Amino acid sequence: MATMKDVALRAGVSTATVSRVLNGHAAPTDATRERVLTAVAELGYRPNVLARSLRMHSTQTLGLVISDLLNPFFGEIARAVEDEARKHGYCVVFGNADESDEQQRRYVRTLLDRRVDGLLVCPASDDPEWLAEVNDSGVPLVLLDRAVPASDAPVIRADGVAALRELAKHLLSLGHRRIGVIAGPENTSTGRERLAAFTSALAELGLAAQATQIAHGDFRRASGARATGELLDRPDAPSVLVAMDNLMGLGALEELRRRRLRLPQDVGLAVYDDLAWFPLFDPPITVIAQPTEEMGSAAVRELLGLISGERAKNVSLSAKLIARGSCGEHGGIA
């Protein structure tokens, strides 16, 4: 394997000149620079990135830990993070927590050991144990989608309060008075906040609390199917279901199909989070869409600001209701 000394000998210059050229500094002459670059190409020389990063105190890499790689929502965010980071000359190293606090801790520790310049984390839960290690390392941190109560790190998230209130008004206007909610886990900020915003909106609009039935899932497809079955088996089964996550929404659709129930004639369905194929269903699924691309891009920009020594801020982007046809928009309801 060629070394910097080999390049210097081939180009007829000092190793200091080779180093200056490779680090983007001015060479004595343009001809010298061309000789160095030609020697690099001919010898197939590759700089020791780790050694250079130690000297420069930067690896030009960001770490991203997402909650669940199988969830398209996080896949879209990861893509947006990678695209924005690339614009600024950074690479992204990914880790999938798989909604596990322990796995999240392992990935955070591994990324810190790899000397990433900054961390982006979509927390698996409220568990703050991993934060101490990040704080001790001094590596800048930005949270995505979910907050951790014990952290003062900036949070980039979608604000769904207005959209959930609009959904509540929409369902009531369609005649729904028995509403079943497939809520997320109570140990996540998004699980608690979405449920609180939606039930508060229903109460403010005059729906009796007992008319709202709730079953909790874990943001996974199987839990959505289980919660749907639980709600539909109750004596006063809901006329419409609201799944507070796209995978739980898919689970709800799976259970409805298993029971041979039709949308929206037998029961309606609305889902928090959009998927590319939801408009292709018959009927198309009514959703609350989150600005995933904007969230990922904003998270990278805030993190790069922290890396540069600037003060970062929380960023709240608006989610929006997209009424399609799965709640009885174009006909009767259950």
In short:
This is LacI family transcriptional regulator. This protein has 334 residues and is an alpha/beta fold. Helix content is 43%, strand content 16%.
Explain what the structure shows.
The protein is α/β, with parallel strands linked by helices and 334 residues long. The chain has three domains: 4-47, 434 Repressor (Amino-terminal Domain) (Orthogonal Bundle), CATH 1.10.260.40; 56-157 and 292-317, Rossmann fold (3-Layer(aba) Sandwich); 159-291, Response regulator (Rossmann fold, 3-Layer(aba) Sandwich). The chain is 43% helix and 16% strand. The protein has helices at residues 4-11, 15-22, 30-43, 49-56, 72-87, 101-113, 131-137, 161-173, 189-204, 221-232, 246-258, 292-307; strands at residues 61-66, 91-96, 118-121, 141-144, 155-159, 179-183, 212-216, 240-243, 268-272, 286-289, 315-318, 320-322. Strand 8, helix 11 (246-258) and strand 9 (268-272) form a beta-alpha-beta unit. The model has no long low-confidence stretch (mean pLDDT 91).
Total strand count, please? 12
Per CATH, the superfamily of the largest domain is Response regulator
How many helices? The count is 12
What would you call the shape? elongated
- Provide the CATH top-level class of the largest domain: Alpha Beta
